[in-house]
Amino acid sequence: MNIDVSTIFQIAGIGIIVAMIHTVLKQMNKEDMAHWVTVIGFVVVLFMVVRLLNDLFQEIKTIFLFQ
Amino acid sequence: MDILQIVGIGLLTAILILVIREQKPMFAFLLATFFGIAVFLALIGKIGGVVSMIEELADRSGIQSVYLKTMLKIIGIAYIAEFGAQIVRDAGLDSIASKIEFAGKMLILVMAVPIISIIIETVLGLLPAGGGA
């Protein structure tokens, strides 16, 4: 019974920072760079979520006898 | 107190999502998904305790293990389908969410077929043989 709050803050922080970098790069007329930053940030966060989802599915498999 | 912890983290996550949704809706969606998974993962240990108690009870009362396995699988399918449908519905895709729920219902029905057939056979066995009079 322990939720890792730090990861939630991490995801929110990545989102805010990526939004900031996106705005700055857009102001500097580098649209393509801005889009790449968004995509890379999204992939990083997606990895965190997918790893946790894998844990969840393994737990459900073991508890509900899905072997 | 676990419930205080979960309510606090839920409020915190809601505020963070409201902040991020203005800039990047994708990150807000991933944050909501992450919170859902984390709560599920935190509670699944307790569900495991309940399941093991049910198993012990079934062992003691001598129920065939096929019934219990099927029931647990059905509960698991229901949990997963509900969870996935809720997350997809959060993203605003109601049609895909209802398809997930439909698939869950169908798979539960398929799992229940052996039990239904056993029930029908039992009822047929109770009826008087011959069936003429």
UniProtKB/TrEMBL annotation, chain A:
Highest taxon of the lineage: Bacteria
Protein name: Stage III sporulation protein AC
Coiled coil: none
InterPro entries cross-referenced by the UniProt entry: Spore_III_AC, Spore_III_AC/AD
Residue ranges of the TM segments: 7-27, 33-53
Pfam families, A to Z: SpoIIIAC
Gene: spoIIIAC
Keywords: Membrane, Transmembrane, Transmembrane helix
From TrEMBL, chain B:
TM annotation in the entry: 6-21, 28-54, 66-85, 106-127
Keywords: Membrane, Transmembrane, Transmembrane helix
Highest rank taxon of the organism: Bacteria
Keyword Nucleotidyltransferase recorded: no
Annotated InterPro entries: Spore_III_AC/AD, Spore_III_AD
Keyword Transmembrane helix: yes
Protein's UniProt name: Stage III sporulation protein AD
